[in-house]
Amino acid sequence: MTTVEFRTPEALADAERWTAHNYHPLPVVVAEAEGAWVTDVDGVRYLDFLAGYSALNFGHRHPGLIAAAHAQLDRVTLTSRAFVHDQFGAFCRGLAELCGKDMVLPMNTGAEAVETAIKVARKWGYRVKGVADERAEIIVAADNFHGRTTTIVSFSTDPDARADFGPYTPGFVVVPYGDLAAVRDAITPNTVAVLMEPIQGEAGVLVPPAGFLAGVRELCTEHNVLMIADEIQSGLGRTGKTFAIDHEGVVPDMYVLGKALGGGIVPVSAVAADRAVLGVLRPGEHGSTFGGNPLACAVGTEVVRLLETGEFQERSARLGARLHAGLEALIGQGVIAVRGRGLWAGVDIDPALMTGREACERLAQRGVLAKDTHGSTIRLAPPLVVTEEDLDHALAQLAAVLRG
Ligand SMILES: Cc1ncc(COP(=O)(O)O)c(C=O)c1O
User: Fold this and answer.
1) Residue of 129, 295, 96, 350 lying closest to 225 (CA atoms)
2) Whole domain around residue 363: which residue ranges?
């Protein structure tokens, strides 16, 4: 008789023993991936319905992105910004044009791009708007998620993200998400920006009331305040359009991008804005060793090229309609509510049945990976290369989990 040795338990034990416990992962140890599928160390296949929180919009190891990365690995990978390299200008131009903005500032992680937007907005406030020194205020939304730096958690309303990390950075005013009157009331002569996610991902894929984003745009224009859209999770095709804010026909003053911009290969983030805004920065005032490195730019250029085709936005809209129809059909059968746009959904599971975590554990046992948030909500965000069959399969597994 032969005994089969499973590698998962040891890999999980190593991870548990040797790393800080700042995450609570599902007990799955991924070894390989392609498209919408991952394979664990024991050869078990799973449909990836989280897609790196939208960092994998183009799927795992998209051939065009992998080819761009390979080609760049054979040429030059890092110069730092002390020199210019031959991938830099093309990437920045392509991304600026995709955003319809004059220029971009590339960084690495999403949080760094948010920090960049905050710094630029403050400097714009002092040097262009004429706000008195140290007085700049930025309006943000309750239940926001913009990253994990000390400044960003300073304006988080999630106790897990914030508690014990003070002293906090001042200069932020929190208003309820989707409440236009509250935004209006919060604006003062010192307000330099309104920073919001066009759809709140971490909060449970919350779509604001129709007209809210357009209303914020009007208020910002009226009061000479910058509108900053954090499209790190919602952007780059996820909702069926290039940016989630496009659904309301709104153009912010600054786009903050990350996640899928790196094609699931390297961390690439950026801020895109017009010269009147980003032009306030001078040499030495901001930067990052790895920001805009050749490998990042080569991959990012290919990401922009993929988005220019419109194929992924179209897939997300079309398959998203199928996903949402399938999820709506589960309302009353264990699902209480469904929100989202395109291939992005927040699904509230009946708490009497199970928690979101339990739902995700049971889904994983059935070969579908998803992530819970806030008690009974699960987030679904498959790669945009997912097929109709994959979608139907995942929906069938969710239905089976809910039947118990
Ligand atoms: C809307 C939003 N902003 C910012 C971030 C932070 O990005 P990163 O984890 O790359 O720092 C995230 C990450 O989930 C996000 O969803």
Assistant:
1) 129
2) 310-375+388-403
Ligand 1 atom having least distance to the Cα of 109: 10
Ligand 1 centroid vs 201 CA: distance in angstroms?
Answer: 9
d(CA 133, CA 127): 10
Give the Cα separation of 56 and 36 in Å (integer): 9
Residues identified as active-site: 145, 230, 259
Burial group, residue 116, by CB count within 10 angstroms (0-12, 13-18, 19+): buried
What total of structural domains would you count in the chain? 2
| 12-71 pLDDT tens trace | 999 999 999 999 999 999 999 999 999 999 999 999 999 999 999 999 999 999 999 999
- Which of ligand 1's atoms lies nearest the C-alpha of 234? 1
Name all residues whose Cβ lies below 6 A of ligand 1.
Answer: 53, 109-111, 114, 145-147, 197, 201-202, 230, 232-233, 258
The verdict on 187 and 127 lying in the same domain is: yes
Torsion of CA 144, 139, 108, 80, to 10 degrees: -170
- 381 is a domain residue: no
| Domain shared by 328 and 225, yes or no | no
pTM above 0.90, yes or no: yes
Measured by CA distance, the residue closest to atom 4 of ligand 1 is: 146
